[in-house]
Amino acid sequence: MFEKVLEESHSWDFLPLLSNNKEKIAIGHCKLCSGIVIDKGKFYGCDQYLITNCSLSIPKKIAGRDISSVQIKKILETGTSSLIRGFKKSQKNDTFDAFLTWDNIEEKVKFSFEGYDRKLNSKK
Q: Which of 40, 45, 92, 104 has its Cβ near the most Cβ atoms within 10 Å?
């Protein structure tokens, strides 16, 4: 029996078990090319970066707030996120609420207050 196990051991492949490669989950279609946006650790980026030098990159943390893959998916599909509360103002202990939108001209995510009444702290 031991001889059979020893013989079979030459064909065992443990590499997939040792690999740190996480399965890449598609979040949405890239706004800049035909690629797929995936979670790259500290940011969301295009899977075609190495092939086409696609520059799409969206940080997972913006103004002190974690940005979920659900919000990124919504931005990629519709151009805007849901209202996100609690962004931190720089140099202050104050926060603000905003939408994140895709700017086609600057090719990046930006804050938007359109449709949001900050004085009433509610959506118009």
A: 45
In a domain, 75, yes or no: yes
**Interatomic CA distance for residues 84 and 89, integer angstroms:** 14
Of 87, 88, 80, nearest to 112 (Cα)? 80
What total number of domains does the chain contain? Answer: 1
8 in a structural domain: no
Q: Return mean pLDDT, the chain.
A: 84
Q: What is the DSSP letter of 94?
A: -
User: pLDDT tens for residues 32-64?
Assistant: 998 999 999 999 999 999 999 999 999 999 999
d(CA 58, CA 37): 10
End-to-end CA distance of the chain: give it in Å, rounded: 75
3-class secondary-structure state, position 100: strand
- Is the separation of the CB atoms in 46 and 27 below 8 Å? no
Dihedral sign, Cα of residue 31, residue 34, residue 39, residue 40: negative
Radius of gyration over alpha carbons of the chain, in Å? Answer: 21
Does residue 22 carry a pLDDT above 80?
no
